[in-house]
Amino acid sequence: MRVLLVASAFNSLTQRVHTELRGRGHEVGVELALGDDLLRARVAHFRPDLILAPMLTTAIPEDIWTEYTVLIVHPGPKGDRGPSSLDWAISTGAREWGVTVLQAVAEMDAGPIWASVPFPVAACGKSELYRNEVSDAAVAAVLLAVDRFAGGVFEPEPLDYRRPDVRGQLRPYHSQQYRRIDWAADDTATVLRKLRAADSQPGVLDELYGREYFLHGGHREDRLRGIPGAVIATRDGAICRATVDGAVWLPQLRRRRTPGGPATFKRPAVDALGSDLPAGIPDAPVTPAEAALRDTWSELQYYEQGSVGYLEFAFAGGAMSTGQCRRLLAAYRQASARPTRALVLGPARDFFSNGIHLNVIEAAEDPAEESWRNITAMNDLVEAILTTTDKLVISALAGNAAAGGVMLALAADEVWCRESVVLNPHYRLMGLYGSEYWTYSLPRRVGAAEADRLTRATLPLSAGSAAEIGLVDRVAAGGTAEFRDWVRREATMLADAPELESRLTAKKQQREADEAVKPLAEYRAEELAHMRRNFYAEGEPYHQLRRNFVYNVAPPATPAYLLA
Ligand code: COA
């Protein structure tokens, strides 16, 4: 079928639906919802059999939904209506929620139901839930709805609140009035629910040191205590605030835009507060190994099980600043010095990595210099992985990766992916040549021609397609918890296998042979020569593209690479 995806942004779910439908042989077009007339023109040109909206925040014009079947993905169970479904699910403490595929009609979210799939609500922020459980349920519901539509006989179910399985309701926009934290009264569980329901957008509006900020993220702290609402500690750019019965960590803040003032964007909390943060607030460091045993916030955790070490990293939005790369490198060095036989890298859930930290770069006094520092730190980390020859290194991707984040994963000996993962192995959309030794690791996996195709096409790739071309080694089905169990089983098996010694010997020899043909330093120097131009030369598009990304500037029309 010809399926036109209409979306407010080519976001993770839209990318996932795109890869899944293409993988099933459908011809898939994408149109960003940037105006009714642009949409009408695209529909007339594309002549879809079906229009599908995986993530749409605006209405489809009536003349389109009367002529075509338009299916809308709604992140709520049957009967749920309104623009803030997930916010309500989290803030009301729902344990199970759903995704429903509805046909577009005049009344928002009230059309006949084509499919509805439930999912468990994990204890995490809204966007993490969206990229994991919601996304998996949405894809299942979309595939069901598309099959039903293609079958031609399915009668969608009219919305009828008398049916016992229609348990949702129409709910209002989840405005800041519902989100406000009363630090003198709200307990930690309440504070966390409010923070999670607002993460990553729009954040919880609050005041700190006389200024208004949106609070982003939210993690429990097990030990530190203080006066409710007060900032009592910092750690790796995050701040810790006391509650009435505990404390929470806030990794990021966004200053509220003042009327007529410049737009603002999320930054590490300590950076956002700047000189407003009073001197004397103690730093509360925690080592990755300690963090794995505690219930506190840390971007890094390290633990061992048998002969395998696990270095988990979790960076907000998958973005890795200079400091974050350096901290991860230090943790990697420590982990690789341990007497383990294998080392598994990657977060337990959500993004593996999306490369250098564009927000931190944007906020820097000299963004070109900071870009350089960031890519240098990233390269140091990748180099350390590439040159580890005394143990097997495995990248385990429970969530998506893009740009340098994909290349970071490829530095390992094996790359394992959860089936739901979407990969964007390219840099062009940010106007960058790219580094992270990709000119070494990408062609060695997929060959020069495929590497060229992947980096030029700038399209997302499903884990399954990535495995077919050898970009990744293994793919496992299931949710993040099942994936982690599977990774542990398989990693233990590999680490304990008698063949490991010969495998490590072969790995060492291969590295030496590769080094003799062309040293890693040469790959790095060549890539960085391009990156230097991207960062410093006149007329390069990178700085503008980065600004558009950080400030979330919508393009004037659907970009050409999506029109094919
Ligand atoms: N730097 C800073 N922030 C980043 C980031 C990066 N490299 N990559 C993602 N983020 C942030 C996004 O701004 C977004 O923030 P929000 O929660 O405040 O909205 C969050 O992470 C999630 O990203 P989003 O774009 O909403 O997710 P997605 O799944 O729809 O799309 C990507 C994922 C990776 C395709 C998209 O984020 C992207 O293109 N990132 C940039 C990749 C890149 O060019 N890196 C630099 C070169 S190495």
Question: Would you mind describing this structure in some detail?
Answer:
A hairpin with a 2-residue loop joins strand 15 and strand 16. This protein has 20 helices and 23 strands. Helix 4 runs antiparallel to helix 7. A six-stranded mixed β-sheet has the order 2-1-3-4-5-6, sandwiched between helices. Strands 15-16-17-18-20-23 form a six-stranded mixed β-sheet, with helices on both faces. The chain folds into three domains: 2-151, Formyl transferase, N-terminal domain (Rossmann fold, 3-Layer(aba) Sandwich); 176-276, Formyl transferase, C-terminal domain (Methionyl-tRNA Fmet Formyltransferase, Chain A, domain 2, Roll), CATH 3.10.25.10; 288-549, 2-enoyl-CoA Hydratase, Chain A, domain 1, CATH 3.90.226.10. It is 39% helix and 20% strand. The chain is α/β, with parallel strands linked by helices and 564 residues long. The relative contact order is 0.08. It binds coenzyme A. Coenzyme A is lined by residues 11-12, 127, 200-201, 266, 317-319, 354-359, 400, 402-404, 424, 427, 430, 432. Coenzyme A (COA) binds at residues 11-12, 127, 200-201, 266, 317-319, 354-359, 400, 402-404, 424, 427, 430, 432.
Write the layout of secondary structure elements.
Layout: E1 2-7, H1 12-23, E2 27-32, H2 36-46, E3 50-53, H3 62-67, E4 70-74, H4 85-91, E5 96-103, E6 113-120, H5 126-151, H6 176-179, H7 188-197, E7 204-208, E8 211-216, E9 219-221, E10 231-235, E11 238-243, E12 246-250, E13 252-255, E14 267-268, H8 269-273, H9 288-291, E15 300-305, E16 308-313, H10 322-336, E17 342-345, H11 358-363, H12 367-386, E18 392-397, E19 401-402, H13 404-410, E20 414-418, E21 422-424, H14 438-446, H15 448-457, E22 461-462, H16 463-468, E23 474-476, H17 480-496, H18 500-517, H19 520-536, H20 542-550
Coenzyme A binds next to helix 11.
